[in-house]
Write a structure and sequence with these properties.
Layout (H helix, E strand, L loop, with lengths): L1 H9 L10 E3 L2 H9 L7 E6 L5 H13 L2 E6 L9 H6 L4 H10 L4 E3 L3 H4 L18 H4 L3 H16 L3 E5 L3 H13 L5 E5 L19 H7 L1 H8 L3 H10 L3 E8 L2 E8 L2 E8 L2
Parallel strand pairs: 1-4, 2-3, 2-5, 3-4, 5-6
Antiparallel strand pairs: 7-8, 8-9
Helix pairs in contact: 8-9, 11-12
């Protein structure tokens, strides 16, 4: 009863910044997590920060479906095959906390890399099929880093539900399969991609685009949706000035990764 009473007092009733509890070390977070009664349903949204309305929609869904919601903010170094890309990844800490508070998130877990990789990345998760295609073929080691950090975060947070957007559909599918394969008792909830009116998928990387680059980026969704084949879509994007890593059809979806102004953007659409 004391634990449950504690959680009722902990549950946030408004959106002031002080109402979001922030943990920056694994030990502090684990100590807090141990106090939560097993019957309490926990929603979890893992992110790398630079939050936008797409993240906010995941948080709001989690808050509506669970007793408590955890948000992690961690720019994971092991999933970047390009150190320059890691260094340029946008960081908007105060804005992220504002979005978390507005969504009525209960806990933000924001560890440092040394906390998450005390083993110096000696141990990692590797998938040997789907992760070798698409982004995996163009970013060596990327999905090892993604799956490893997600496994660590799921083990730490022990959520009832974890929420992922479909924009990173390959990542979503790999995480679903990992959770099933390793018998992790968390339900992975798939959430639709949020888009601007132009069709551009919401992404933290959009922040790095100039105004003209952002306008040009809108052609990614239009092209993969309207082109008759993946090959035609790739040619059309190349003709528009994009540096195209791939446009490929898998699992009844069309996947794309293309760069403009040095910013790599991904998207996918369901094939009808």
């Amino acid at each position: 009863m004391l634990q449950m009473l504690h959680l009722q007092n902990f549950r946030r009733k408004n959106t002031r910044m002080s109402d979001v509890k922030v943990f920056e070390t694994v030990s502090e977070f684990k100590n807090f997590r141990r106090q939560i009664h097993p019957d309490v349903e926990i929603g979890f949204v893992p992110t790398m920060g630079a939050l936008h309305q797409g993240h906010a929609s995941l948080l709001e869904k989690s808050v509506s479906e669970n007793d408590l919601t955890f948000l992690s903010i961690f720019v994971n170094p092991t999933q970047f095959n390009d150190s320059t890309d890691f260094d340029k990844y946008p960081k908007t800490w105060q804005q992220d906390l504002d979005i978390a508070a507005k969504a009525k998130v209960d806990v933000v877990f924001a560890p440092k890399p040394a906390e998450m990789y005390a083993d110096k990345y000696r141990y990692k998760v590797t998938e040997n099929e789907f992760s070798k295609l698409l982004c995996g073929a163009h970013r060596p080691g990327h999905f090892d880093g993604v799956l490893t950090v997600v496994l660590k975060l799921l083990l730490l947070t022990q959520p009832t539900h974890a929420y992922f957007g479909q924009k990173d559909y390959q990542q979503l599918q790999l995480i679903k399969d990992m959770v099933a394969s390793l018998f992790i008792p968390t339900e992975i909830v798939s959430c639709k991609t949020l888009r601007e009116p132009s069709g551009l998928a919401l992404s933290s990387r959009n922040m790095r685009l100039s105004e003209s680059g952002r306008i040009q980026a809108t052609f990614i969704f239009k092209t993969i949706t309207e082109s008759s084949s993946a090959a035609v879509a790739k040619k059309n994007l190349t003709d528009l000035g994009f540096e195209v890593d791939y446009v490929e059809d898998h699992k009844q979806r069309r996947f794309v990764a293309a760069s403009i102004e040095g910013v790599r953007l991904i998207d996918n659409v369901e094939l009808k």
